[in-house]
Amino acid sequence: TAAMRLMGALPPPLHARAARRTYRAGFFGGIVSNMPGPPLPMSLAGARLGDVHPILPLADGVPFAVGALSWNGALHISVTAEPNVLPE
After folding, report:
1. pLDDT at position 45, please?
2. Strand 31-36 and strand 64-71: pairing?
3. Of 37, 23, 25, 41, residue with least CA distance to 77
4. Which domain of life is it from (predicted)?
5. For the chain, which has fewer Cβ within 10 Å, the N-terminal or C-terminal residue?
6. Are 60 and 27 in contact (CB under 8 A)?
7. Cβ(68)–Cβ(34) under 8 Å?
8. C-alpha triplet 17, 23, 26: angle, nearest 5°
9. Tens digit of each residue's pLDDT (9 = 90 or more) over 16-33
10. How far apart (Å, rounded) are the C-alpha atoms in residues 62 and 26?
11. Cα(75)–Cα(82) distance, rounded to whole angstroms?
């Protein structure tokens, strides 16, 4: 939507504030994001990158987030959660 495109164009501090207000408690129960990555190995300053971790921050009042990233022929998944959401 136009509102989401506008929010994406904001400078990072304003974008963070707008995202917190938009995705406040009660709006939804969790965040799930699938991010496509490059299909080939990547390097940084001549060193091959071995692993990636798609860690998503929690929005205020949102108890968990799941990130998935396809990269170099593998699917990497991470879960970020408030401590009281997942039993030990």
Report:
1. 94
2. parallel
3. 37
4. Bacteria
5. C
6. no
7. yes
8. 135
9. 888 777 766 666 778 888
10. 8
11. 24
